[in-house]
């Protein structure tokens, strides 16, 4: 909470105008080109992150597919994850989030602009509907971000179990799967500190449909998690060296 206040105070001279823009873009999101909306989100996010004393250290941006739609699958550390990936990714994307965060101040406007999908984990029918909607949107060219743990890890840089069902929409859309390793993102919003934080975002080599088409969703989940864990462990070794 304190870091969010710091972000707001740092951005105070721009807040009225940016807030107007965010609300306007959210209200007319269907009428505004994706690149224009994403440029606004990046501008606001980069400035806010700087004010909040959060540095985004990006690795592997060249691994983000350029010619086809894809799905990001990062480990989940907290509310700051989406903001860090917005700054890190140079390609627009939408997100599948739990329904509980749908109306959080500021994130609500960002999610609306991104045309996010909200999943009720207690409603199987609604969850299946969201998976089908995401599948169709990925087929039509929209990129997505899905947290395969389903909820944030309570152990910082140590990911929880990845759920196979999270990968169903990518499998049905036959699109590249992009593992994303997040480090220290939980320190931004999920602690009471305002000390400077460096969040690492690693875009790993994508898995093409040809590579995973004969695998079960649970096998894909284990593979993606193993790659992310290996990246985190290597990055932590480098930090400690």
What's the end-to-end separation, in Å?
Answer: 32 Å
What low-confidence regions span 5 or more consecutive residues with pLDDT below 50?
Answer: none
Largest sheet: 7 strands, mixed
Number of helices: 10
Assess the beta-strand content as a share of residues.
Answer: 5-15%
- How do the strands line up in the largest sheet? 1-7-6-2-5-3-4
* Cα Rg: 17 Å
Overview features:
241 residues, alpha/beta, 7 strands
Textual characterization of the structure:
The protein has one domain (54-102, 116-240). The chain is 46% helix and 15% strand. The protein contains ten helices and seven strands. A seven-stranded mixed sheet has the order 1-7-6-2-5-3-4, sandwiched between helices. Strand 3 (94-98), helix 5 (107-114) and strand 4 (117-119) form a beta-alpha-beta unit. It is globular, with a radius of gyration of 17 Å. The mean pLDDT is 91.
Short description:
This protein is an alpha/beta fold and 241 residues long. It contains ten helices and seven strands.
Secondary-structure map:
Blueprint: H1 2-10, H2 15-27, H3 34-51, E1 54-59, E2 71-74, H4 81-88, E3 94-98, H5 107-114, E4 117-119, H6 124-139, E5 144-146, H7 168-173, E6 177-183, H8 186-189, E7 197-203, H9 209-212, H10 217-240
Parallel strand pairs: 1-7, 2-5, 2-6, 3-4, 3-5
Antiparallel strand pairs: 6-7
């Amino acid at each position: 909470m304190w870091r969010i206040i710091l972000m707001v105070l740092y951005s105070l001279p721009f807040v009225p105008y940016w807030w107007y823009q965010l609300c306007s873009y959210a209200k007319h999101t269907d009428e505004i080109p994706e690149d224009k909306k994403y440029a606004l989100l990046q501008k606001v996010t980069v400035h806010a992150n700087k004010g909040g004393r959060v540095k985004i250290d990006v690795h592997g941006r060249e691994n983000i597919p350029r010619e086809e739609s894809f799905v990001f699958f990062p480990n989940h550390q907290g509310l700051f994850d989406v903001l860090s990936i917005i700054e890190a990714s140079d390609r627009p994307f939408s997100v599948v989030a739990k329904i509980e965060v749908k109306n959080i101040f500021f994130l609500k406007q960002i999610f609306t602009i991104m045309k996010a999908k909200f999943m009720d984990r207690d409603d199987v029918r609604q969850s299946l509907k969201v998976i089908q909607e995401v599948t169709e949107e990925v087929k039509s060219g929209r990129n997505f971000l899905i947290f395969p743990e389903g909820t944030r890890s309570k152990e910082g840089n140590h990911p929880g179990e990845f759920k196979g069902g999270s990968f169903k929409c990518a499998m049905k859309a036959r699109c590249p799967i992009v593992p994303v390793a997040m480090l220290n993102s939980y320190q931004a919003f999920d602690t009471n500190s305002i000390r400077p934080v460096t969040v690492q975002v690693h875009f790993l080599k994508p898995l093409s449909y040809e590579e995973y088409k004969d695998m079960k969703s649970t096998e894909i989940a284990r593979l993606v998690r193993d790659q992310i864990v290996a990246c985190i462990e290597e990055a932590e070794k480098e930090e400690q060296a």
